[in-house]
Amino acid sequence: MQQSSGLGFAPSTKESALVDNREHVCTPEDCPPCGGYYVSCVDDNGNVFLMAGPYRTHGAALADENRACKIASDADGRAWFMAWGTSRVREDAGELKAGVLNRHKLI
Ligand SMILES: [Zn+2]
Q1: How far is the CA of 107 from the centre of ligand 1 (A)?
Q2: What pTM did the predictor assign?
Q3: Is the bond into 54 cis (omega within 30 degrees of 0)?
Q4: Taking residues 87-100, what's their average pLDDT?
Q5: Count of CB atoms within 10 A of residue 41's CB?
Q6: How many angstroms is it from 29 CA to the middle of ligand 1?
Q7: Separation of alpha carbons 62 and 44, rounded Å
């Protein structure tokens, strides 16, 4: 069912708004399966939060992105308005920390 919020956004359903249409194909060159991948979000001030992870592959992090966003938004509504994506921590960054949601045992 098409819904209009009255805010002038293109009409859509909440379900279709949550569909991720970004094209990304992981390749061994761009996304080596060497670990250190996280679901991350960025707030208005540019602060980056590593929310879930670490994952061994980029694909695994991508697969959990929407779920992590929903879980975080349920815990703190501000999460919904952050920019969500995936990040990889450099190999020389030292020990990989558990993501925020992992530390809170939410994911
Ligand atoms: Zn990838």
Answers
A1: 21
A2: 0.80
A3: yes
A4: 91
A5: 25
A6: 9
A7: 22
